[in-house]
Amino acid sequence: MGAGLSVMDGFIAATANVHQLTLVTRNMGDFAPLGNDLFNPWS
């Protein structure tokens, strides 16, 4: 089992969720289970 989500990643995800924003990241694996809309511009 992994270490879980960092506090800063949690703040980023929560902010995107509250404001109904797409979260832009290349770290899709950490954010995917949270249900945010995600976009990876590097893929």
Automatic annotation (TrEMBL):
Q: Which Gene3D superfamilies did the record assign?
A: 5'-nuclease (3.40.50.1010)
The organism's superkingdom is given as Bacteria
- Cited InterPro entries: PIN-like_dom_sf
How is this protein named in the record?
VapC toxin protein
Q: Per the UniProt entry, what species is this protein from, by scientific name?
A: uncultured Chloroflexota bacterium
